[in-house]
């Protein structure tokens, strides 16, 4: 539905338009003269949090806008002394900085109503919408220039009340009469007072730095081109704006070996990508550019924590051109204050030049589900976007719910493998490709490269998986029956064989040798296969469906399923029984950690980890697992006084036959400590604290064991499956010697017999030799005193 507003040309009727509606707007055949702001449109819905994309527009056509007529009286003004003016200050149109009038405001496409008139009419009380476009055609602008001793009439001006996003404007067939070049555009600078925890947090929001205007035929700018804002405003300048090199995500400035990349080397230029045709217009606070075609790219998190987990600052790097731009996203709009109210949707709208390549880096862990699209662009426009993933699983790309094959896919019937490139860039999606969503994952740089063509959204879905690398004895690849391993592994794990794929077989030592002395490393991926879905509104060409998988009818693997699979594999490997189950000798294996979904409580811990770039050749492929052959007590226990915690707690390491650290923590197995006498007899009720604990990798670190009994000659025994280890003998500390007088000692001795040391009797106290001599001396003194009294 559209609102269509029209006026017959009538010089006596020149009211401006302030429109707020959930529908598209058409304004045509109107005359607007000498207005504070001629047209200010606000269109709301659908909500950004529902991820709804609409085709709503504001269309202005066949109209006449006049800044000032020749008879305009500069002294005829209303001042704030008028109570009507004072009372309506927040609802009146904002003027250019030096005063004057404006023709058309940049549009506001919002998630919801702005709650006016309780709040300002032009304000924003909800997130910006995902999509929106204003077009101005066949319209004449008259006398937009300097007037009235310093005042200025401006044709297009941003809405100063909107800090989140102001959607693009496209103009064509424009006529300018008596209007100055420096008064065509005015873009406000960000409101630094909004850089607070209750609004934009610690960095300018994006609206004033992402205001794009395109001239489609050259009638407005003099030739086909665009106006792009000064996105780098206050870069390393006023610290209140929170913008500078120090806000660039660290992973963008890190090489594979961990060394630092100087900013000047990778991104000497700041802001929106520009070429030599761009000229900075100081009066516009923007650039006038004619050499590049600019579009607005949408980057949207589809995760359930899109409002509660901050991804910004987001860096958009045009590496070949040396430009980096930073985005913060929308502000907080909760009607409350404090840290708990900081909800900000993870939605970003960088301005990009088409036919260029970009890399995107989030400050925190990349979303598991991400959506990309070019706003208001046809299929002739494309960009290549690389998204860095610090903890990649399998990344599946969909367009209209249709799975898009990676460029390096190699199909074998209904299964596939991903080919490794033989030279750099071999499988990189080409900008000339006509396939929206063409994609390739570069394992070396943990970056998924995607071709985004036109306005049809491209969706990246993280498919959880675990990767298992088995080390098996030497044999030729031809001798290895991969299908048997898959079949046996599926039976052992009780999952369909379709969820298991052998992704790589490497002969250790030399790939060219017929038989590798070190054996084979077989990499196996366990995951749900990509799901081919048919969109109801899309007709699929049958010739393109032969290389896609069918819908998974056996049920998807959940995070708990992956945890159970890892635990079962680990338990069997640690006990040494895995080889029997798989019918192939397994020397060792590694298992990657499963990643929880965004709705799982464990995701917040994963997502909060520091994002680092690591060299895949030196990083671990997962938790190392093998048969635990021995337990080593690395830290011996030292006891304190009876009833107190051990002053040094024991630490035990699980190892294989070669002394390697075995990651028992991948399983659900625990380690139990038992108190014994030196002769091996178990001491009942002699130990307190957590005697059974889980491992941390291969380490079992006790923290609160308490020896309840006095005495010496104690040992701790640790048992894991059939493997055990013992500590050296240790003793409780002795009690301090008595400080009582002889008289008190006599009384005590007559009321209670001194305990006799008896090692092995947990019910009787044990004395050291020194204590025994002391007791004997006190006893003799008591006897002498008694005899002397007689």
Q: What would you note in describing this structure?
A:
With 790 residues, the protein is mainly beta. It has 5 domains: 2-186, no CATH class; 243-274 and 292-464, no CATH class; 469-538 and 545-618, no CATH class; 628-726, Sandwich (Immunoglobulin-like); 742-789, no CATH class. Helices cover 10% and strands 30% of the residues. The protein contains 8 helices and 49 strands. The strands form 10 sheets. Strands 1, 3, 4, 6, 7, 10, 14, 16, 17, 19 and 20 form an 11-stranded mixed sheet that branches. A hairpin with a 3-residue loop joins strand 11 and strand 12 (151-152). It is elongated, with a radius of gyration of 37 Å. It starts with a strand and ends with a helix.
Helix content: 10-25%
Number of H/I helices: 8
Domains (count)? 5
**CA-atom Rg in angstroms:** 37 Å
Terminal CA distance: 120 Å
* Overall 3D form: elongated
For the report, how would you describe the main beta sheet? 11 strands, mixed
- Indicate the proportion of strand residues: 25-35%
Q: Are there runs of 5+ residues with pLDDT below 50, and where? A: 7-14, 510-517, 534-554, 741-772, 785-790
Oligomeric state as shown: single chain
Q: Structural class of the helices, strands and pairings?
A: mainly beta
Name the average pLDDT: 85
Number of E-state strands: 49
């Amino acid at each position: 539905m559209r609102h269509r507003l029209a006026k017959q040309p009538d010089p006596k009727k020149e009211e401006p338009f302030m429109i707020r509606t959930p529908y598209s707007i058409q304004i045509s055949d109107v005359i607007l003269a000498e207005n504070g702001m001629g047209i200010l449109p606000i269109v709301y819905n659908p909500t950004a949090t529902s991820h709804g994309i609409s085709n709503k527009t504001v269309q202005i056509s066949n109209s006449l806008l006049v800044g000032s007529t020749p008879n305009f009286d500069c002294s005829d003004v209303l001042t704030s002394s008028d109570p009507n003016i004072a009372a309506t200050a927040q609802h009146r149109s904002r003027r250019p900085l030096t005063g004057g009038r404006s023709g058309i405001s940049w549009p506001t496409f919002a998630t919801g109503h702005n709650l006016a008139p309780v709040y300002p009419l032009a304000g924003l009380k909800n997130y910006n919408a995902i999509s929106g476009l204003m077009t101005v055609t066949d319209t004449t602008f008259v006398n937009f220039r300097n007037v009235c001793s310093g005042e200025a009439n401006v044709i297009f001006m941003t809405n100063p009340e909107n800090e989140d996003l102001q959607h693009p404007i496209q103009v064509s067939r424009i006529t300018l009469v008596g209007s100055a070049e420096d008064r065509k555009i005015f873009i406000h600078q960000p409101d630094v007072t909004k850089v607070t925890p209750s609004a934009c947090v610690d960095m300018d929001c994006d609206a004033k730095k992402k205001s794009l205007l395109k001239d489609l035929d050259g009638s407005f700018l003099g030739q086909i081109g665009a106006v792009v804002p000064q996105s780098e405003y206050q870069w390393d300048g006023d610290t209140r704006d929170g913008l500078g090199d120090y806000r660039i995500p660290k992973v963008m400035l890190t090489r594979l070996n961990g060394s630092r990349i100087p900013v000047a080397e990778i991104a000497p230029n700041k802001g929106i990508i520009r070429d030599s045709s761009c000229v900075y217009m100081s009066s516009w606070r923007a650039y006038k550019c004619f050499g590049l075609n600019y579009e607005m790219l949408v980057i949207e998190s589809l995760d359930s924590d899109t409002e509660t987990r901050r991804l910004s600052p987001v860096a958009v790097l045009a590496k070949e051109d040396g430009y980096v731009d930073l985005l913060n996203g929308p502000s907080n709009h909760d009607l409350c204050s404090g840290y708990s109210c900081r909800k900000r949707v993870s939605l970003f709208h960088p301005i990009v030049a088409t036919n260029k390549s970009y890399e995107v880096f989030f400050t925190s862990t990349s979303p598991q589900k991400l959506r990309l699209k070019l706003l208001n662009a046809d299929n002739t426009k494309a960009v290549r976007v690389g998204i860095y993933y610090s903890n990649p699983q399998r990344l599946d790309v969909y367009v209209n719910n249709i799975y898009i094959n990676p460029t390096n896919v190699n199909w074998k019937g209904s299964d596939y493998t991903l080919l490794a490139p033989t030279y750099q860039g071999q499988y990189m999606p080409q900008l000339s490709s006509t396939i929206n969503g063409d994609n390739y994952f570069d394992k070396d740089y943990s970056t998924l490269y995607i071709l985004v063509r036109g306005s049809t959204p491209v969706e990246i879905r993280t498919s959880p998986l675990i990767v298992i690398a088995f080390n098996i004895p030497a044999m030729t690849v031809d001798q290895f029956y991969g299908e048997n391993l898959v079949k046996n592994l599926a039976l052992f794990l009780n999952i369909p064989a379709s969820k298991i794929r052998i992704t790589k077989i490497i002969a250790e030592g030399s790939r060219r040798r017929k038989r590798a002395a070190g054996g084979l490393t077989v990499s196996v991926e366990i995951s749900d296969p990509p799901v081919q879905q048919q969109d109801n509104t899309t007709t699929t060409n049958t010739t393109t469906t032969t290389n896609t998988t069918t819908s998974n009818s056996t049920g998807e693997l959940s995070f708990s399923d992956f945890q159970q699979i890892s635990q079962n594999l680990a338990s069997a490997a640690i006990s040494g029984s895995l080889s029997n189950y798989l019918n192939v000798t397994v020397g060792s294996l590694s298992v990657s950690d499963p990643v929880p979904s965004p709705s799982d409580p464990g995701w917040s811990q994963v997502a909060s980890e520091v994002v680092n770039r690591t060299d895949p050749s030196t990083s671990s492929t997962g938790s190392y697992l093998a048969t635990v052959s021995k337990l080593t007590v690395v830290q011996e226990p030292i006891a304190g006084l009876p009833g107190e915690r051990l002053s040094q707690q024991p630490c035990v390491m699980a190892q294989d036959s070669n002394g390697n650290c075995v990651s028992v923590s991948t399983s659900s197995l625990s380690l139990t400590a038992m108190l014994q006498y030196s002769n091996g007899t178990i001491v009942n009720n002699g130990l307190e604290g957590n005697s059974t604990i889980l491992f941390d990798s291969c380490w079992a670190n006790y923290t609160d064991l308490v020896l309840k009994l006095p005495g010496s000659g104690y040992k701790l025994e640790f048992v894991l499956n059939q493997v055990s280890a013992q500590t050296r003998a240790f003793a409780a500390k002795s009690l301090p010697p008595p400080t009582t007088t002889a008289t008190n000692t006599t009384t005590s001795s007559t009321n209670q017999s001194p305990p006799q040391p008896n090692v092995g009797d947990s019910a009787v106290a044990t004395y050291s030799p020194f204590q025994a001599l002391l007791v004997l001396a006190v006893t003799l003194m008591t006897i002498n005193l008694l005899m002397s009294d007689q």
